[in-house]
Design a protein that fits this description.
456 residues, alpha/beta, three-stranded antiparallel sheet
């Protein structure tokens, strides 16, 4: 059980002046202008530029606008830039954007700062939306401390281990149904070099609180470590945190991809797709790309739960979700868009128009009951759903936590803390410093957060 902090989180830091100046230049993929606030029969939506969002943008005019008469003006930006722009607009309650893509990291924080509208009344009136169909972990992760609902998931994910079944068979190796991290390390050593240019495993090493720190923090959790104990004491210098970090760094240095310190999600996806690595631990969302019709590894990948050591499960929980700005001048129209974009109807549209492996899954129970989706996603859908169902964002380790989160700590300060710690870890992966040195510096950074929260 986690301990609630009585301290009101500070508002999220907005973009730097340099970042603010860059955003107009980066917004070249607008489907309309969102500069002066929406009105009449239009709404403004600010969203991340991942492939499934881009597909949504392409489908909106011919389907949502055609059916409702509501024009959607999209501003689509890379992840770091979109987070900065959202924090500016929502923190100031400028009302420039009605809807934005927010994760389960931001939504509870934004809700506590009164930047979002409660979506509960809309879901109760909109029975066709079928809120009960949303998977419980997703509902919980988008609920504020006041018990109200502040987001609707567009898609959800956990994490699992992906591996080349054909290579393992050729080498006479067997992947356990529920592997431990030590077993994974042993297998990585065995399969390293199994094919020309193939490494044993790919793990993120790229700096960023959402890059290397995401998988590494799940390893820390299952090894018995934590960023902070229940009393907000920083614990990055604990034996458990150090053991997990040393294990991760050693594994990726000895049997991981070349250039690991600059490899993130995209690079590892490419490595597994192109046959440059035999295993990869990362987001369940990757499976759709690996099993796509034109993927060179389609049908060759096996999927097993996130490796563990001391916990029953260790997969993370993440969702890109829709948040409705409290200052929106068009909340009812905005809800109609959210309802459509997160609906069963939209999933069916994607399945029919683009392909069932591209469906934004991970949020609805009915998706996993759909015969067409189950057939196309047969290789991974069962493991994916189990991973999401087994995620424990409020109790992810072996000790009580002061804030929710599996691959992050659910406080506003974590964006800066996680990023700065990630730079130290990445430097250790690159061989520029020892793990001991990286964690010594990181502990000092975390202690500054402890000073702000302890005793409150």
């Amino acid at each position: 059980m986690r301990t609630q902090s009585r301290r009101r989180p500070r508002r999220l830091l907005v973009a730097t002046a340099a970042g603010t100046l860059l955003t107009p230049l980066l917004a070249g993929c607008w489907a309309g202008a969102g500069g002066t606030g929406s009105g009449g029969d239009s709404i403004n939506v600010l969203m991340v530029n991942n492939p499934q969002m881009v597909e949504l943008q392409k489908l909106t005019a011919a389907h949502f606008t055609e059916e409702t008469g509501i024009k959607v003006n999209f501003t689509v930006l890379p992840e770091n830039d979109v987070r900065d722009k959202i924090s500016q607009d929502f923190a100031n309650q400028a009302g420039q954007y009605d809807v934005a893509t927010l994760s389960n990291y931001e939504i509870p924080i934004y809700a506590k700062n009164s930047w979002l509208r409660d979506l509960g009344p809309y879901t109760r009136k909109d029975r066709a939306f079928d809120q009960r169909d949303i998977l419980p972990p997703m509902r919980q992760s988008l609920t504020g401390e006041d018990g109200k609902l502040y987001g609707q998931p567009f898609y959800g994910e956990s994490s699992f281990l992906m591996y080349r079944k054909d290579v393992f068979k050729k080498e006479g190796l067997t992947m356990p149904e529920k592997p431990t991290w030590q077993q994974v390390a042993d297998l990585a050593a065995e399969v390293d070099g199994a094919e020309k240019g193939m490494k044993g495993i790919c793990l993120r090493g790229l700096p960023g609180w959402g890059e290397v720190m995401a998988p590494l923090t799940t390893v820390v959790n299952t090894f018995g470590g934590t960023w902070f104990d229940k009393d907000w004491k920083a614990r990055l210098d604990s034996p458990e945190f150090e053991k997990a970090t040393r294990f991760y760094v050693d594994l990726v240095r000895e049997h991981g991809e070349s250039g690991a310190a600059q490899s993130g999600y995209a690079e590892c996806l490419n490595n597994l797709t192109q046959g440059k690595t035999a295993m990869w631990y990362d987001a369940t969302a990757a499976a759709g790309s690996l099993e796509a019709a034109k993927s060179p590894v389609k049908g060759k990948i096996g999927y097993v739960p996130a490796p563990v050591e001391r916990t029953e499960s260790s997969g993370w929980l993440y969702t890109w979700a829709w948040g409705l700005q409290k200052a929106s001048k068009n909340p009812d129209k905005a809800w109609k868009f959210i309802s459509w974009a997160s609906s069963k109807e939209y999933e069916n549209l994607v399945g029919e128009k683009i392909g069932w492996s591209n469906v934004p899954a991970g949020k609805r129970a009915s998706t996993y009951e759909n015969p067409k989706y189950r057939e196309e996603a047969a290789a991974f859908q069962g493991v994916m759903r189990a991973a999401i169902a087994g995620a424990r964002p409020r109790d992810p380790g072996v000790q009580p936590r002061p804030a929710p989160g599996i691959q992050f700590v659910g406080i506003p300060e974590f964006t800066d803390l996680g990023t700065r710690v990630s730079q130290e870890i990445s430097a250790a992966i690159a061989g520029r410093q020892s793990v001991e040195s990286a964690l010594e510096k990181s502990q000092k950074l975390a202690e500054k957060i402890s000073e702000e929260y302890e005793g409150r």
